[in-house]
Amino acid sequence: MRKIVTAVIAAAMPLAPATAATCWKQTAVEAAQIRDFEMMLMVSALRCRATGNNFLPSYNRFIREKRETLTQVNDELREHFRSVAGPVGALGAYDDYVTGLANSYGAGADGLACRDLQSITDAANALPPRRSALLELADAAGISPPLSGARCDVVVAVAGKAPKSDSLPDNEPMKVASRESAE
């Protein structure tokens, strides 16, 4: 069994540099989260304008006041797709990603009514135009953007036997952790 695991690891080693280039860096993950948040507000503002909770003017204010930060986030997201799809495919990959985000809110934001989204937009307008503030609100709103690949910061370990130590008995299986399992 150990020979099989070693062979699998050895076979995958040459692929590591290419895989690292396509993973999502923390900056890109945050950019995707803020873009997802903004897309939720945009689609919802358009959907809700025919209801008693027309917050489209509030959304437009959000865009005007946070334009610089939102532009920076879009540039970071475009850079991620340039690194993944290359200069020729970057724009198409970015457009596909953003269109997918918009489509995911076409039937509404899961569990949020128009009045909830209006309240979230009002909260966004009350924030300073800083990336960290938007990221914090996106976190509070439960935004978890879809990622078309692995995160660069997630560590994966191969299960096996733990090294001998005084705290673990012999043959104790090694516990495998990742940043995601700690959340």
Outline the secondary-structure elements.
Layout: H1 2-12, H2 16-22, H3 26-48, H4 56-65, H5 67-104, H6 114-126, H7 131-140, H8 179-182
What does this entry look like structurally?
The radius of gyration is 21 Å and the shape is globular. The longest helix has 38 residues. With 183 residues, it is mainly alpha-helical. α3 packs across α5, α3 packs across α6 and α4 packs parallel to α6.
Supply the number of helical segments: 8
Task: Kindly report the average pLDDT value.
Answer: 79
Largest sheet: none
| Helix-residue proportion | 55-70%
Compose a concise summary of this entry.
With 183 residues, this protein is mostly helical. The chain is built from eight helices and no strands.
Q: Main attributes?
A:
183 residues, mainly alpha
